[in-house]
Each structure stands twice: as structure tokens, then as C-alpha cells.
Amino acid sequence: MEDIDPETSLTLAAEVGNTLLMENNSLKEKINTLTLTNSNLALKINNLENQNLTYLEEQIEELLNEKQILINKNNTLVERLNEAELQLNKEKHFRNELVNKFEEHDVDKENTIKKLEIDIQSLHNEIKCLKHDLLTTQSSDIKHYKNMETQTLGLPREEHELSKNSFLVSMLTEIKINQDNMESSLKPLINYHVSQQQLKSIVKTPINLTNDKTPCLRDKHKNRSAKSNKGESKNTAYKNSMYSASLQVAKCNKQFRSTNENTIIDLSDKVTTKTTITSPTTSKNKSYTSKCPSST
Questions:
Q1: Which residues contact 209 (CB under 8 A, 6 or more apart)?
Q2: What is the pTM of this model?
Q3: Distances in whole angstroms, Cα of residue 100 to Cα of each of 96, 104, 105, 107
């Protein structure tokens, strides 16, 4: 080093200084570029942060709104659930009341049915007793005759209470109705027999047998005419008997109807005056049995 002169040393120092200055300038440029890039990156970061913050804030607001909506829905569902539980409790209570009422109603029905069965049984017994009493009263009221074809006098009369008169009146009205029906059914038969009798009463023209050629034929015609006359006489006698029987039946029916009407009027008068009467239809039945001919 001591051998180097100062001029060379100065040049070397100048060259070294120049290289150092150049390096320093290049480093400064690099620093400026780096600062610029850093500032750009910082701006970008700020922009991104701002964007992210706004997005996140919006998302947070939406989530908060959804949360509030869900909370409201939950509250409404809770209220509905409470109302449903209350309604269910009410329905259970109402159902229990209905079950109790139906059970009470069934018990009442069973009791009423039992009572009605008892009443029905008692009514059946009463009906049986009344039927028995009715049969006994009927058997005591009916007149017994000996030899109905010729007997006209019955057993002695018996006194009855006022309560039996209504039954007798009803029986007589039924007899009157049956008598009317019988008369209406006998009318066409009587008319038919009358018409047949009128036809048979017409005189027929006699058959002239004088023109017969032989006596044998005359005998035959005579025999035939005699047989026909016998048959006609039998038929006319039978129809006359039927006609007379029908007239007698109609006459007896008319008399019996008049006697029944009189007895009904008498019994109704006696029931209204509330007096005890004896057995009706005794004298009437006598007249009926004496006037009506027997079927034999």
C-alpha cells in the first residue's frame, strides 16, 4: 500500500464512491417501488375490508331478521300449542261430562224400562183378571134354556150392578151390527130365490101328444112328461121351502133387530139414570125364540 501513489488512490476512492452512489440510488428506487406497491396493496386491502365489512353487515342483518322471524314463529307456535293443550283439556273434560251424562241416561233408561216392564206385567195381570171377571159376568148374564127348539121360559132373572150395563150395551150394539151385516148378505139370496120362484110360477104351454103316430110313442112321451113333472114338482117344492125359510129368516131378523134396538135404548136410558137393572133381553129373547122357527 505504501508503494501506491496518492493519485491512484484518489482515483480508486472516486471509483468506489461512484459505485456506492449508484448502488444507493438503485436501492432508493427499489424502496420507492416497494413503497408504491405497498401503498397499492394497502388500498386494495382497505377496499376488500370495506367490501367484506358491508357484506358481512348485510348478512348479519339478514340473519338477525331471520332470527327475529323464527323467534316470532316460535312464539306463535308456542301460543298455538298452549291453546291446543287448553282445548284438549276442555275436550277431555267435556267428553268426561258426556260419558257421565250418557251413563246417567242409560241408568235412567234401565230404571224406566224396569218400571215399564213391571207396569206392563201388572197390566197383563189386570187384563187377565178383567177377562176372567168378564167371562164370569158373561156366564152369569147368559140365559140358559132347555130344549131351545120349544122352550120359551128361561131361568129366573138376576140383578146386576150399574158397571155391567155398559158392557151389555156394547155387546148389544155389536149384535145389531152383526145383524145388519147378516141382512145385507141375505138380501141377494132372497132376491135370487124370489126371481126363481117367479120364473117357475109362469105357466108353460102343454105339449100336444095327439099327433103321435103310434101308441108306443104316446106312452114314451107320457112317461117322459110324468118324470119331468115329478122333477119339476120336487124342484119347486125344494125352492118353495127355501123361499119360505128365507122369508122366515128375514122376518125373524127384522123382529130381532127391532128388539135389539129397543133393548139398547132401554139400557142407555137406565145407564144415564144410574139405576140397577136386571138382565135385559130376557123377554125379548123369549119372543125371538117363540117366533123364529128352528133350523130343523
A1: 218, 221, 222, 225
A2: 0.29
A3: 6, 6, 8, 10
